[in-house]
Specification:
The protein is of the alpha/beta class and 475 residues long. Helices cover 43% and strands 20% of the residues. A hairpin with a 2-residue loop joins β2 and β3. α3 crosses α4, α14 crosses α15 and α16 crosses α17.
Amino acid sequence: MAINQPFYLDEHIDVAEGPVSLRRLYMRKAEDFNGFHNMCRLVKQAFKEDLEEDMSTEDVLTQRNAIVGHIKEVSFYKAKITEFLKKNKWMNAWFPAWYSDLVSAIFHENWGWAGIAAWKEMTNSSSCKIIGDRIYFLVDGKQVLQEQTITYPRLRQLITALMLPTPEQRLDENKAETYMLDGTRVKIFDDGLAKEPTIIFRKYIVDHFSFEEQAARGTIPRQMIPMLKEMTAIGFNVGFVGAVRTGKTTFLQTWQSYEDDSLEGIQVETDPEIPLHRMMPKAPIVQIVADGERLLGITKDLLRGDGDYLIMAEARDAVALKTALQSTAKGTRRVKMTYHTSDPTDFCYDVASEIVQEFGGNVAAYAIKVAKGFHYLFEFVQLKDKSQKRLKGIYELRYHPSTHDITIHQICRYDFSSRTWAYKYDVGEDKRRIAEQEDQEAFERFCRRLQQLENSSPIEGEHVITLPYMEFLRG
């Protein structure tokens, strides 16, 4: 072959690999996709023709419910698709590998989850993103670009469908947040705000809420489980803190699963994330979805209620924080709250500051109320492998009336280098007084467990922090 002679890769592959060349494989794949998409189009056209004969309100509602995942309507559509395929002898037709079967593939392409249907079936992937026409699944802690894509018209259809369950939610300033029937959280950033329309999906992958399950996932050490069970029995007021996506809400649900289901509880959420009516079906728990002005309007009613405890599922604003704090000030035990923070030692100041900015008052006075009202903080972090969460530390909040100081005592610390936890037996006298009222025997067991953990793996170095800004705030 002459040096300047043109070289065609596909002809070389034909010779090197025989009759099935790479070029032919690509051509066959394109033919398969074209055939599949044409089949989807014909099915959709058949549905359209049927519905146009009697486009009743019921028909429209059926379409909407099928899109958002109601079982009855999905089954109706799949039955019609199956009937159409059998009639045309297409039951053995090709479909993309990211779908489980042909009928589901056609349903999702036309009306369902499109290219993210496979993610809905992944039990170990907590998030998925659509950015423009690209689709990403969280796999082994990393967002992985998928083979399938989504067209712009189909993306528009999906955004419309996702907003159907909550018509009161709209694309306000090109963004919206909603929830699907199965609890999947959906955040939408549309044209005008994002350079490319973006949808972020997040689901809970833990379906069994127990400390044993948390230990199996590596979030907490197994040897700590008995101590945690004693803490839930005593009824301390606890805060679960950390950055976003660190497992705070999952751990709150786990903690709540050990609660006495004969006690009356009140749960306040800004979004309907925690289905306590399914987790604890026998417990008398009132679940309220409210935030901001709406929550402010019912705060007095909540505090006047006869609930034994309060769950503030996610304290996002000053109203939620003040509501939780007022509940602890009444002497309520078993208060539980999640809160976003990068440093638990700033918890008292951050909460106080947010409340004062909204309602006025003295930051130092509110910080003292926080330290008196909440007993323990559990800090969580997300590792480099984003599927892995860790309990980074447990902190006891302590207020000293004689000096008006606030100290934070770390009783558990995670070591990232050794991947182990260390402990310190340090329990305040106010915690002992609480235990006398709640469960003295559980408290004694808690103390013994913590002492045993320290004996086996003690915290090295200082474990007490005195908040440095208190003197300044008091001045």
